[in-house]
Amino acid sequence: MADDFPDWTIEDVSPYIKYEAGSVPEYAFIPCIRRSEDEGPDQILTPDEELRLMTKQVTETQGFDMDFKQFHCIFNYLPLDFNENDFVMEPETSRELMDRLSRGALEGYNERENTRYGFVKVIKANLYTTATTAVMYFITFEGKDPSYDQPRGFRAKVCYFYHEPPKYISCNLIPETKVRSIEAAEKEGAKKPRLTEELASV
Predict the structure, then answer these.
(1) What is the pTM of this model?
(2) What secondary structure letter does DSSP report for 88?
(3) Whole-angstrom distance, CA of residue 79 vs CA of residue 34
(4) Hey, what's the torsion of the CAs at 48, 49, 52, 53, to 10 degrees?
């Protein structure tokens, strides 16, 4: 999917601190869910410790699931605030842009996998700005196949250019978590002592 993209659009970008707590300029973009100055974490982390934690989260989730409330520092990775339109071209809103990019990513997924998923809604998005006129988005959204009752989760990495068509780096289904019922586990546990007793009596 990304074979013809510039290298910088498909390379992993490491997190770095843009502003440490207490040194954020007034004009800086402040993430909507960032921990406030008067909110102390369970344990006080140094900037280096925050950077290591952010790097761990980015690595483990490929940029899609970071808990920004754990940090006082501001990083290059940011959560998208759907009520702000700092990273879009008017009159389009952030919400409208995420919907459009999700639909485009899902269209590519359907062509690649020969499926018929329809777009449902965007759940959340993270981003980082680049050295060009582009923003890299990590979008989590839902799509629904006509043959399924419930929508499925998707993750799409999209490079959005202000004056060029977006580049869809990847779009994949989020693996479903198989939840085993407590009742089934209890039934299985109840069988084991009886089986032990039966074997002992033979």
Answers:
(1) 0.80
(2) S
(3) 9
(4) -140
